[in-house]
Amino acid sequence: GKHWTVNEVRALIRIWSDKSIQQQLEGTVRNKRIFEQVAARLQKFGIDRDWKQCRTKYKNLKHEYKSAKSSQDSGSTSKSMKFFNELDAILGHSTMEQASKSDN
């Protein structure tokens, strides 16, 4: 597909950082409906992406974040990513919560 621009990714992350979207994404595996909402919101920013593109980008960003995060945790600073701080604001706390849940 068409390459995502920085603005498009920023808009996607902004929508994704919405608490209700996060809760929906955390609570489900079959998330086509959620990504249709995300795509509709992107459309309002003038960004033309279908739900599949949104889901793929979301998965890729999440994967990239996790590998950047784990290389950071192991003390390596080489692996970094463009939107790390934005994603850390969204994902950083949720992975902590899950970790503390499994501790109990």
TrEMBL record:
Ranges for domain Myb/SANT-like DNA-binding: 2-90
Pfam families: Myb_DNA-bind_4
InterPro entries (alphabetical): Myb_DNA-bind_4
Protein name, entry field: ZSC29 protein
Native source organism of the sequence: Chloroceryle aenea (American pygmy kingfisher)
Gene: Zscan29
